[in-house]
Design goal:
heterodimer; A: about 240 residues; mainly alpha; 13 helices; globular; B: about 325 residues; alpha/beta; 6-stranded mixed beta sheet; 11 helices; about 40% helix
């Protein structure tokens, strides 16, 4: 556990050293503000529901930019060799790196926190949905990061890792939306299609509902992608 | 301390390591020599747990590298060939990070970092970014992180590659200091280094051990043997005939050097014939300008032994 935190801390510090982090932070802050002010109008509801949904779409493209270098950078530097010959398991490496990236994700949400304060000063928002909304954003972001960690482990090329992450996320979201309307999908499968889609799952968080199936969904899908990342990393040893 | 038994590694259809077996007792410095592509780095990577062997076993201090991998890794300080480091970290930061990964406590880490920085002469650059260090300093940081947790075994893959002669001397001195407290397995193809610092030498070519022993033992097997070179002021033919007449001399090769004769004398039985030659020079009333004893070098032995490996497949192809 202690070693997982060591790796996470180093990864977080290293993320802030690279210029990509600041580009992403800047773009995300800009995007947050723009989306916020689209919904922030006199007479509008004092909630962040629309903002959160918008932010999720923004995350689809900005979060993979953070995760793309997680494992690929180690291979490029050659430091994967010292990492994998240390007395730590591959699982500890993957989870540590993912946690470090999660720390960065929380920083990404700071502009939103500031804007929430603005909302609080100008209206009387319902705090329940706002908290679960934040939680939901962190869950979804964590899911995207887990997918990104897997993609980063699969290839040494950061651009490919980025595109692979975006591709997988789109498969889970956009494709699923497409399938709900498609005629060749049997009716019995439609609820399953809705279930897999993280956007739909997030809608629960947005409403202020903390539902066990939703939590299980996020935890298990994150665990799946992190597990696959560990296996991919281990398999590099066989080659 | 390090026990390797029938280690084999296939990279797809290529056999990189072919049933390697050797043992290294505690406190020895062993030089691991071989031409490029012989399987040195592969063997070291298997020992440190980076690659799994295709078959065979190895133990480090009794810990099996497959079944007790983490325990084995804890006992090794490894410096990989490319000395990988994080350019965005400072030297001290990086050493703290490595210490934490090795499971050292905070107090332990602080003490050891001071000790290790002192030994590797890193104290002036402790707070510098690794990306701003010269190659020599980077190599020292790599060595420092290998020494940090005071491991009983040190595995160094080409620790002096790319260093200037001063730095090579410094690293050699450092390795010599480690001698009795640590077991060192040093891979290199800079032979003079090994001749001076190693207790034992293992020569590997095409995945197999082709020779092992102390440097002295190996040198005695050099068929070229020791020669004496004499420079005198006499006609070549004269020098040649008179020296070859001596019973202890097997062959004399002469050449002209600025009006003097340079004679390379091969002894018949590999003994020291300098005294004999000195006497011959006096007897013949020649003037001596230089007498030089050319000992066999490990390099000659290395070429002799590994060249065979390169010729063999060519001959096999020719005869096939």
């Amino acid at each position: 556990m202690f070693q997982i935190l060591t790796i996470a801390r180093r990864e977080l510090a290293s993320l802030f050293y690279s210029p990509i982090a600041y580009v992403v932070l800047g773009l995300f802050a800009l995007g947050t503000a723009m989306i916020f002010f689209m919904f922030f109008a006199p007479g509008a509801a004092a909630s962040l529901v629309g903002v959160n949904s918008g932010l999720m779409w923004l995350m689809i493209f900005l979060v993979p930019a953070i995760s793309m270098r997680l494992i690929s950078e180690e291979f490029r530097n050659g430091t994967i060799e010292t990492l994998m010959t240390s007395p730590i398991s591959d699982a500890q490496v993957i989870v540590g790196k993912w946690l470090g990236a999660m720390g960065f994700l929380v920083t990404l949400l700071v502009p939103l926190m500031i804007l929430t304060a603005v909302l609080a000063f100008t209206s009387k928002p319902d705090w329940g949905p706002i908290f679960t909304g934040f939680l939901g954003l962190i869950c979804v972001g964590g899911l995207f990061l887990a997918i990104g960690t897997f993609a980063s482990a699969v290839t040494q090329n950061q651009i490919i890792a980025f595109l692979l992450t975006v591709f997988i996320i789109c498969m889970l979201t956009i494709l699923m939306y497409f399938l709900t309307g498609a005629s060749f999908v049997p009716n019995k499968l439609i609820p399953a299609v809705y279930y897999i889609n993280p956007m739909e799952r997030f809608a629960d968080f947005n409403k202020g509902v903390l539902d066990l199936p939703t939590v299980i969904y996020f935890v298990s899908v994150k665990a799946l992608f992190l597990f696959m990342a560990v296996k991919v990393l281990e398999s590099r040893r066989w080659r | 301390m390090i026990a390797v038994n029938n280690l084999v590694k296939w990279y797809g259809p290529n056999l990189a390591v072919d049933h390697l077996t050797f043992e290294i007792p505690r406190g020895q410095i062993v030089g691991f020599l071989g031409p490029n592509g012989a399987g040195k780095s592969t063997t070291l990577r298997m020992l440190t747990g980076y690659l799994p062997p295709t078959s065979g076993t190895a133990t480090i201090d009794g810990q099996d590298i497959l079944t007790a991998s983490h325990e084995a890794r804890r006992r090794i300080g490894y410096l990989p060939e490319s000395t990988p480091l994080y350019p965005e970290m400072r030297v001290e930061e990086y050493l703290h990070y490595r210490g934490q990964l090795m499971g050292m406590s905070r107090g332990d880490r602080k003490k050891r970092i001071d000790v290790v920085c002192d030994r590797c002469s890193l104290t002036p650059v402790r707070r510098r970014l690794i990306g701003h260090l010269s190659k020599g300093n980077r190599q020292r940081v790599g060595l420092a992180q290998a020494l940090l947790h005071n491991p009983p075994v040190l595995i160094l893959d080409e620790p002096t590659a790319g260093l200037d002669p001063n730095q090579i001397n410094a690293v050699r001195g450092l390795i010599h200091e480690l001698k009795d407290q640590h077991t060192v397995l040093l891979s290199t193809h800079i032979l003079p280094e090994v001749e001076k610092s190693a207790d034992r030498v293992l020569i590997i070519a095409r995945g197999r051990i082709v020779a092992q022993g102390t440097p002295q033992e190996l040198l005695q097997q050099v068929t070229a043997g020791a020669k004496v070179v004499v420079e005198v002021n006499a006609p070549q033919a004269d020098v040649k005939s008179r020296l070859e007449a001596l019973p202890a001399v097997s062959q004399v090769h002469t050449q002209e050097a600025e009006g003097w004769t340079l004679a390379t004398v091969t002894p018949a039985e590999g003994g020291d014939i300098r005294q004999l030659l000195g006497q011959a020079v006096l007897d013949n009333r020649w003037v001596l300008r230089e007498m030089r004893y050319e000992t066999a070098t490990l390099e000659q032995y290395f070429i002799q032994i590994t060249a065979q490996q390169y010729q063999a497949p060519a001959e096999a192809a020719a005869s096939a």
